Every structure is written in C-alpha cells, then in structure tokens.
Amino acid sequence: MSLAQRTVRLTSWGRFPVAMAKVARPARQGDLVGLLGDDTHPSLIGRGYGRSYGDAALNTSGVVVEQVHFDRLLAFDETTGVLVAEAGLRLKDILEVFVPRGWFLPVTPGTKYVSLGGALACDIHGKNHHGDGSFSSHVEWFDLLTADGQVRRCSRTEQSDLFWATAGAWA
Q: What average pLDDT does range 91-106 have in this prediction?
C-alpha cells in the first residue's frame, strides 16, 4: 500500500527555484520501506525543513520524502557527549535540551532550524570550520536506508563509500 502523497509548491531557503512536487510524510520507518517498493514514481529524495540553498531537496519527477516525524533523541552518553538521534531532529531541539546541561554542538550554521539529516547531507559548516571542520567531521556513524530496502551502518571505516556519498556527496 502506498503512503499518501500530496502535490505542493516547494522552495528552499533562497525561495528559488519553485517546484511543484509530490510530498510524502512518513511517520514510521516501515512507511519509508513501503515507498521504496512503490513503482509509481521514478525517484525519491529526503527533505527535512527546507533550509538548504538552491534545489537540494526538490524533486519534480519523483517524491520528496519529508522526514520531520523522525525527530527523536535516541541515546546520549554524558561522558563522551555522543548523541544518537533520528535524521529529522532539528539543531534547535538539541540545543534546547543540551545547552542547559553544559553541552553545545561543535558545528552550527547560520540557522538552528535545520535537521540532523540535512546538516549531514549538506555537510554544513559554522564560523569555526577552519579549526573544527564541517558537520561530517563530528559524525561517528549513521544508519542509511538504501534503495534495496536495507539499513546500512555507515562510518569512515564501515561502508565508507556510502558515508561520503551521503555526507555532502563527496563521492
């Protein structure tokens, strides 16, 4: 069964270009897998909150998959500062929880309204990139749902080709 899709007008942060696109908003990982098996569209692209420049998350010939429901904190190690969270979690939400506890993100862009998935996909940087690098410099691993329906653990040493193809598309 196909996930409900609606056609909407989409732009990104710069408000150009404007695209009409089919949008799906899955609530569970199983919904994502269902989209992969749906042959009614030629392609999928993930989207968080639409804060990228240009057309990074626009897809006029397929489906834009909004991941805003995937916004949970899953684990946090108070000793190391390692956070495990879903791709749709906004930097704003992380800051609200962890700044009062004495933690801050190592990389923050000009807006806090970006998702973790978008931060990784665009490999964002902050004002300190000359010393601390970009977002991917601080990602130990992520799980990636690939087109074959498999979830793959990606890091610099495990599935590194997928890690770099996802982190700012360094392929």
A: 96
DSSP 8-state class, residue 122 = T
* Parallel/antiparallel/unpaired status of strands 44-47 and 63-66: parallel
> Is the model's pTM score more than 0.85?
yes
Which string of b and e fits 13-32 if b means at least 16 CB within 10 Å? beeeeebebbbbbbeeeebb
Burial of residue 149 (CB within 10 Å: 0-12, 13-18, 19+) is exposed
Alpha carbon 113 to chain centroid, angstroms: 12
Q: Angle at Cα 87 formed by Cα 152 and Cα 122, nearest 5°?
A: 90
Q: How many helices (H) and strands (E) does the chain have?
A: 5, 8
Whole-angstrom Cα distance, residue 154 to residue 4?
A: 30
Instruction: For residue range 32-86, list pLDDT tens digits in order.
Output: 888 887 677 678 888 888 887 777 788 888 889 998 899 999 999 999 999 999 9
